[in-house]
């Protein structure tokens, strides 16, 4: 075989140009700054994640509340929240064909009531907001840690 052969079974070191090129690798100018910026952005996103974290279940009073549960079920399991908020979410305007005339009637649902209940699970835990739409639990969001 030629001297450029680099088999694992040979005891002598590989001497062909590809291995020398790998050993003398120098990063491109500006690449380190770009990596530092990317790592800083990633770290900021990870640190901000608890404020925006969502989950599919919430433990309260030794019971579990899941997405899709009714408001009455959540209140039985968790008790009264420390804060209740309700607001109007704009509804969808849907065109509906009128029978026999070929014209369309627009049905405008003025609003859908959205309820948000906030629970304080205790010292060192995260404030938890449960969001209800049409009487069903649709989102569980964790906020700041309780001091």
Written overview of the protein:
With 147 residues, the protein is of the alpha+beta class. The chain has a domain at 52-145. It has three helices and nine strands; from the N terminus they run H-H-E-E-E-H-E-E-E-E-E-E. Residues 5-10 and 46-52 have low confidence and may be disordered.
Write the layout of secondary structure elements.
Layout: H1 17-23, H2 31-52, E1 54-55, E2 57-60, E3 63-66, H3 71-78, E4 83-90, E5 93-97, E6 104-108, E7 111-119, E8 126-133, E9 136-145
Antiparallel strand pairs: 1-9, 2-3, 4-7, 5-6, 7-8, 8-9
Helices, by number, come to 3
The largest sheet, given as strand count, sense and whether it forms a barrel, is:
5 strands, antiparallel
| SSE pattern | HHEEEHEEEEEE
Q: What is the percentage of strand-forming residues?
A: 35-45%
| Strand order, sheet with most strands | 1-9-8-7-4
The secondary-structure class comes to alpha+beta
Which bin fits the share of residues in helices? Answer: 25-40%
Low-confidence stretches: 5-10, 46-52
Q: What is Rg?
A: 30 Å
